[in-house]
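Title: Prediction job returns without error message
Component: structure pipeline
Severity: low
Priority: P3
Assignee: unassigned

Description:
Job completed but the reporter wants confirmation the result is attached to the right record. Sequence as submitted:
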Amino acid sequence: MNSQMVLTFGRDALMLLLTISLPVLGVVLAVGLLVSIFQAVTQVHEATLAFVPKLLAAVAVFAIAGPWMLSTLVDFIRRTIESIPAALG
């Protein structure tokens, strides 16, 4: 196992992390922006008004994209485990 292989593995892992977390982060960011605009317009500054919609949006995204996220992670782990003998030998 040389340094190039380690760097490639690390890059692939970071890209997978970014790919899997992007849907949840994007939806929560959009919902947070909408709630902030609503709070600024109505001048209602309630802590739960900012938290609950983001939580519900995150749960909805996990319910919709969860199987895709899980299968992507399983494929990556399977490829990583299968590449161990080639990396060592």
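Comment from assignee: result matches the submitted record. The chain has one domain: 3-88.
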